[in-house]
Design brief:
The chain has 429 residues and is mostly helical. It has 29 helices and no strands. Helix 5 runs parallel beside helix 7, helix 11 runs antiparallel to helix 12 and helix 18 packs parallel to helix 20.
Length: 429
């Protein structure tokens, strides 16, 4: 057993956070005088449940918060923690998605508004409890009901009907809630206050005509908030790609799934400050390898595309396209420093169909940063040598594996012959 009392705080903390620490040591750390040690103990997924229960009632707010958020706590423990004197502990239980309905009903009557707010935001809170909280005196609590995705539409309308005009938190919460009726969200999207329009902009149930209107909103942050909407139409993305404000266009380049037309629009951005924009050859590569079928077919058959990208390559890099060793070209595709232009030519012009397919598949999984930055090979000769070495290594390994199998067969035959000296070797086959 480790003598914990002789260890420094940082050493005990490292032991407390280590999942491989024996359970008896973790139990011993429960009573450690340093809250940092107990904090890491609460974070450790290997901490026994009896220790987690004890830490949930810890006097330190952070320790209690972490332990109380554990989904492994038994139902009776949630009920006990719901009466804890520490408000942080009660808030954590109120937000815990494993808390039993009885504990949430008890916390819905808590004297602290932050606890009641936690209950009102919790998706597993019973509807009957949400109906009570809809009449709460605190705006933040009613805002929690308004943003809860399980709140029924009729209850959402009731919350809105009971609020005053200046309770912006409730309006923002309701505008962002996908459970809200589309007509109501559309009405909130026309509110005179930008914060409410921003909240409505990201709601996937927002009607298309409202989305189009917000794309022309006078407030750039409202237009930028549209990019959080997963239901954004292509025509709106195109509109935002030519937005007058740089921050909107920059945010658009980080969008996870831009259509081909939008990528091309961004690539053609020639403003001096458009350092974030995708470079045209790189965009064409992405479109040719991972774009719309019609766009892709047009680009692959377009000789101007190849010529444009060919001009981006140095003479040394261009020579590697014509390396006869197919395995070397395949290895080059997966090299971490291959530039987009070189990958483009391999994807579009390589004489081997398997190489072209491998290059296109590689292009499909490249991150956005690959298309945004001009990646140049610093030591092209070294890269090519690495590719050749990789290809030769693969071939050599295949030969070695074959020889090893042959060796095992020969050893087996010899073993059989030695075991049966009278046996004619020809009878073995």
């Amino acid at each position: 057993m480790i003598c914990l009392s002789k260890l420094a705080v940082y050493e005990r903390s490292n032991i407390a956070r280590d999942p491989t620490t024996p359970s008896e040591v973790l139990v011993a750390l429960t009573s450690d005088e340093e809250s940092l040690v107990r904090y890491y103990l609460a974070l450790n997924p290997a901490t026994p449940i009896e220790v987690m229960i004890e830490l949930a009632g810890d006097d330190d707010d952070d320790v209690s918060r972490i332990a109380s958020s554990s989904p492994a706590l038994p139902p009776n423990m949630f009920m006990a923690l719901a009466e804890h004197t520490n408000v942080v502990t009660r808030v954590t239980v109120a937000r815990n998605r494993s808390a039993p309905p009885d504990a949430l009903a008890m916390l819905a009557c808590d004297r602290d508004k932050h606890v009641r707010r936690g209950v009102s935001c919790n998706p597993i809170t019973p509807i009957s409890v949400l109906e009570v909280l809809a009449y709460d005196a605190e705006e933040g609590v009613r805002a929690g009901v308004a943003c809860n995705p399980t709140t029924p539409p009729d209850l959402l309308d009731r919350v809105l009907s009971l609020m005053s005009h200046d309770e912006v938190k409730i309006l923002m919460a309701a505008a962002s809630n996908p459970s809200m009726l589309p007509d109501t969200v559309g009405r909130l999207a026309s509110d005179e206050r930008p914060l409410i329009r921003m909240a409505a902009a990201g709601n996937p149930i927002l009607p298309v005509n409202q989305i189009v209107e917000l794309a022309c909103d006078e407030d750039k942050y409202v237009r930028k908030a549209l990019l959080n909407n997963p239901a954004l139409p292509t025509q709106v993305l195109l509109k935002l790609a030519s937005d007058e404000d740089e921050c909107v266009r920059q945010a658009l380049t980080e969008h996870p799934s831009l259509p081909a037309e939008v990528l091309l629009q961004l690539a053609l951005d020639e403003t001096e400050d458009a350092h974030f924009a995708l470079t045209l050859p790189n965009v064409l590569l992405k479109l040719a390898c991972d774009g719309d079928s019609d766009v892709k077919r047009t680009l692959i058959m377009n000789p101007l595309l190849t010529a444009m990208v060919r001009n981006e390559l140095s003479s040394d890099e261009l020579l590697y396209i014509y390396i006869e060793d197919r395995d070397a070209r395949m290895a080059l595709i997966n090299h971490p420093t291959i530039p987009p232009q070189l990958l483009l030519l391999l994807a579009l012009t390589d004489k081997d169909a398997d190489v072209r397919q491998a290059a296109r598949l590689s292009a499909q999984i490249k991150p956005n940063i690959f298309w945004q930055e001009e990646v140049r090979i610093i030591a092209t000769g070294n890269v090519m040598r690495e590719a050749l070495f990789s290809a030769k290594a693969s071939t050599t390994q295949a030969i070695v594996n074959t020889l090893l199998i042959s060796k095992k067969v020969i050893i087996s035959v010899n073993h059989l012959l030695n075991a049966n000296p009278q046996q004619d070797s020809n009878c073995l086959y």
